[in-house]
Amino acid sequence: MSKSSLALSNLRGFVILIVVAFHSFLAYLGSQPAAQPAFDSPPYHWKAIPILDSERWFGFDLFCAFQYVYLMQFMFFLSGLFVWSSIQRKGGKTFLSDRILRLGVPFLFGVYLLMPVAHYPVYRVSAVDPSWSAFWQKWVALPFWPSGQLWFLWYLLALNLIAVAISRLAPRAGTLLGRLSAETGTNPGRYFVRLVAISALAYVPLAVVFKPWQWLQFGPFAFQPGFTLVYVTYFFAGVGIGVHGFERGLLAPDGMLARRWARWVAAAGGGFLLWIIPTALTMDRQDWYVPALEIIADLGLVISCATACFALAAVFLRFAAVYSAIFHSLSTNAYGIYLVHYVFVIWLQYLLLGVALFAIAKGLLVFAAALLLSWATTAAVCRIPIGARLMRAQRVLARAR
Predict the structure, then answer these.
(1) Torsions phi, psi of 56, nearest 5?
(2) Do 7 and 331 contact (CB within 8 A), yes or no?
(3) Which residues contact 57 (CB under 8 A, 6 or more apart)?
C-alpha cells in the first residue's frame, strides 16, 4: 500500500475516534440548559443532545465546537475520493446497487431498530412511567422518526445517486473535476481559495435563514439546511481529487500540503477563532450588536472548515503514512463503529447520571467504553458474511495504489 493510501487509512481510523468522542462529550457541555427537557415537548432538544448531565466542563464545548465546523464536511470529502473510479470500474447500475446495499440497508436497519433502543434512556430521564410500552407509545407519536447520526448515510447515498446521474448525462464531468484539481499538489493555496469561495457561495446565503445548528426532519430523513450545499461542495471536491489521482495531487505524501503542515495547523487555529469569536458575540445581542458580525461569523465558519480539513490531511500525510495495526483495525471497522456507537454512548451517559464523577472523567469514560463496545460489536457482527459485507471497509485504498 502506498504512503498516501496508508495515510488515508489511518486518517479514516482517526476520524471515527473523533466522531465517537464528539458524541460522548455532548452530555457535558457547559453551554446547554441546566435540566433535561421533556421527551415529548417541542422543539425536541434531545434530537441533537440526547442526555444532559449536571456535571459540565467548557473544555468540551470548545472541542465539540471545533469538530462541528469541519468534521462532516471532511467525511463527505473522504467519501467522494473513490466514487468516480468506482462508477467507471463497476458501471453505474452495479455501483448503485452496491451503494444501496451498503448505505440504504444499514440506514433502514439503524433507524428503525437501533434508534429506538438508543433513545429509550432519553425518555426514562423524565418519564413518569419508564416502561418500554409507555416509551413506545410516545416514540411512535412523535412527528418525526429520529435518525441520530445515521442521517449521514441517506445524504451520502443521495450524493452517490447524483454522481451516477452526472456520469450518465455528462461523462466528461469527471475529467473536468480532475482538471480543476490538477495543480493541488504544487499549489494547494490556490485550490484552498477556490474551495473557500465556492463554499461561501453555497453557505452564506442559506446562513441568513438557517443557523449552523438548525435541523429539519421529514420522517426519518434529517438534514442541516444551512450546510446542504456545503456538503455537496466537499463531496465533489473529493471526487475531483480522486479523479486527478490523490497520490500526485493534494494528498501526495511529498506534496506542498504535507510539507507545509505547520502553516495549515496554525491557519486552522486562526480560522476557528475567526468563527468562534463573532459567533459568541452574536449569541447575546446587546446594544452594541453589529449585524455585520453574523456575516463575519458565516465567512469565518467557511474558512475554519477548509483550514481544518487541510490541516488534518497535511498532518496525516506528513506523520502518519506508515502502517499501524491499531489504526488499520480502526479503519477497517470504522463504518460499523459509526453505525452502532450511538446506542452505547447514550446508554453510558444515562447510566452515569448522578454518579459522583467530574465531567472530564465521565466524558472520557463514555468515550473509551463506547469505542471499545462498538469496536467489539462490529468485529463480532463481521464474523457473519452479511455483516462483513455491510460493515467492513472495502479495500479501495489498496486498489488505489
Answers:
(1) -135, 155
(2) no
(3) 28, 30, 358, 359, 360, 363
pLDDT digits (tens, 9 = 90+) for 16-66: 999 999 999 999 999 888 888 889 888 888 999 999 999 999 999 999 999
Q: Quote the cell numbers at residue 52.
A: 444532559
Sequence-distant (≥ 6) Cβ neighbours of residue 104 within 8 angstroms: 153, 154, 157
C-alpha cell at 228: 446542504
pTM: 0.93
217 forms bridges with which residues in the sheet?
A: 222
Contacts 24+ apart (CB under 8 A), 330-333: 330/12, 330/13, 330/14, 330/16, 330/17, 330/375, 331/9, 331/10, 331/12, 331/13, 331/16, 331/393, 332/392, 332/393, 333/375, 333/378, 333/379, 333/382, 333/391, 333/392, 333/393
178 membership: H or E segment, kind and range: helix 173-180
DSSP letter for 394, please: P
Element (H, E) at 31: none
- Rg of the chain over Cα atoms, rounded to whole angstroms, equals 21
Q: For residue range 186-226, what is the model confidence (pLDDT) as tens digits?
A: 889 999 999 999 999 999 999 988 988 889 989 999 999 99
In Å, how far are 79, 346, 366 from 343, measured between CA atoms?
A: 24, 6, 11
Peptide bond into 43 cis (omega under 30): yes
Residues found in the chain: 401
- Domain boundaries, given as residue ranges, for the chain: 3-399
